[in-house]
Automatic annotation (TrEMBL):
Keyword field: Transferase
MF-aspect GO terms: glycosyltransferase activity
Protein name: Glycosyltransferase subfamily 4-like N-terminal domain-containing protein
InterPro entries: Glyco_trans_4-like_N
Chain ranges of the Glycosyltransferase subfamily 4-like N-terminal domain: 111-172
BP GO annotations: lipopolysaccharide biosynthetic process
Gene3D superfamilies (alphabetical): Glycogen Phosphorylase B
Segments passing through the bilayer: none
Keyword check for Transferase: yes
């Protein structure tokens, strides 16, 4: 059984990772069920879950609802979390969790600087934090996408001996085209405080490059407070969601990943 809080598919970072994890599980096991918010056709039974606005950002409610949907299986693979209740409901012989952890202290600081509050109480309130990490402490294997991510997870008691590093896979570009005539810098991804996009925009405003353009791709750019910090005339082009990632990379001269802290940026 594979469970995730990410929408499985190619249009979202966590969704891409979940998609390939499902494909890998199908290759090495009999994947009998996928439980997630939304999914592309995986060729296996999928149980979709949804929460109303009141509970949508409550990870423990996601776990509870998932636990009502899951079947018994020999192996439980979790992406995201926590999934303590779901683990008990599945009652597997082997539990594997994928945890793309990053620097919590830096993340808290960036959220407070940009939006005034850190919204994920389960990571900073100690009783909730212990509850949140319970599913990892009781897992048989913890997969982290980078050494840095693994080092953060190992800080929590009971996890160190279970952690292995397995980098995320991703699609390679279909072809590499010549550089564009105009100098273009690109960013593709989310816009949250951890991503450091506000620093990219400030740096770009100060460079004053002539005959150049900053391209910002990703669904979140269409409705985001950061985009209100600049005017459209400042050589910045908001593309929003792009259908072809390969075409986007071929349209730019340089790619910039301004993340302040990152578990493993797919871009």
């Amino acid at each position: 059984v594979f469970c995730t809080t990410a929408p499985i598919g190619k249009g979202h970072g966590g969704g891409i990772v979940s998609y390939y994890e499902c494909q890998a599980l199908k290759e090495i096991s009999e994947l009998i069920q996928v439980v997630c918010p939304i999914s592309e056709d995986m060729g296996v039974p999928v149980e979709t879950i949804s929460l109303n606005d009141r509970y949508h950002d409550n990870p423990f409610m996601w776990d509870y609802v998932t636990s009502l949907k899951v079947k018994h299986a020999d192996i439980a693979f979790f992406n995201g979390g926590p999934f303590s209740s779901s683990t008990r409901a599945i009652n597997p012989s082997l539990v594997v969790v994928d945890v793309p952890a990053h620097n919590l202290e830096v993340s808290v600081e960036e959220h407070q600087n940009l939006i005034g509050v850190y919204p994920y109480r389960q990571l900073i309130d100690q009783p909730l934090r212990d509850w949140y990490f319970d599913y990892m402490v009781n897992a048989d294997l913890i997969i982290c996408p980078s050494k840095m991510s693994a080092d953060y997870v190992k800080r929590y008691p009971g996890t160190k001996a279970k952690v292995v590093v397995v980098p995320h896979g991703t699609d390679l570009p279909g072809e590499a085209k010549p550089l564009p005539e105009q100098f273009k810098v690109g960013y593709l991804g989310a816009t949250g405080p951890d991503k450091g996009t506000i620093y990219l925009l400030k740096a770009w405003a100060g460079l004053m490059y002539k005959d150049s353009e900053l391209l910002l791709a990703g669904a979140e750019w269409r409705e985001n407070r950061i985009s209100s910090l600049f005017q459209r005339g400042q050589r910045v082009n908001i593309l929003g969601r792009v259908e072809s990632i390969s075409d986007f990379y071929n349209s730019i001269s340089v790619y910039c990943q301004p993340s302040v802290t990152e578990g493993f940026g797919l871009s």
